[in-house]
C-alpha cells in the first residue's frame, strides 16, 4: 500500500505509540506473533493475502502467542468504495474499530484512533 509511510508518520507524530509497518501480510502475521499489539491497520486487498483472512489469522493466534492477552487486537481496515459490501459484513466483528477510506485522510485516521492510542503531548521548549 503506497500510504504505509504516511500513516506510520502521522501516527508517530500525533499519537504516543510505536508503529511497525510492513508491505506483506505474511510479515504482518510474523510480527503479530513476535510481540503484542493493540491495533492493526490493514488494507482489505493485500499483495499476498486478503486482509480479512489475515485479520482472522491474527485474531486467533495473537492471544495464544502472548501470555496474559485474551482478546484480539483492534483492527481498522483501509477500504475502497468497491469493498463497501465486504466491510458491512465484517462490522459484526467485536475487534473491528472501523474503516478508513482510500486514500486515507489524516483527520479520519486521528478520529478513528482516538481513544485507542494515547495522544502525543507537545514537547515544551527546554529553558536553561
Task: Explain what the structure shows.
With 128 residues, this protein is α/β, with parallel strands linked by helices. It has one domain: 3-Layer(aba) Sandwich (Rossmann fold). Helix content is 40%, strand content 13%. It contains 5 helices and 3 strands. The chain has helices at 4-14, 25-34, 51-65, 84-90, 106-113, and strands at 39-43, 74-79, 96-101. A 3-stranded parallel β-sheet has the order 1-2-3, with helices on both faces. Helix 4 (84-90) links the parallel strand 2 and strand 3 (96-101). The N and C termini lie far apart (45 Å). The mean pLDDT is 82.
Percentage of residues in helical conformation: 25-40%
| Largest sheet properties | 3 strands, parallel
Quote the beta fraction: 5-15%
Topology pattern, helix = H, strand = E: HHEHEHEH
| Rough outline | globular
Classify the secondary structure makeup into a structural class.
Answer: alpha/beta
How many domains is the backbone divided into? 1
**Oligomerization:** single chain
CATH superfamily: Response regulator
Extract low-pLDDT stretches.
none
Mean of pLDDT: 82
CATH architecture: 3-Layer(aba) Sandwich
Sum this structure up briefly.
This protein is an alpha/beta fold and 128 residues long. It has helices spanning 4-14, 25-34, 51-65, 84-90, 106-113; strands at residues 39-43, 74-79, 96-101.
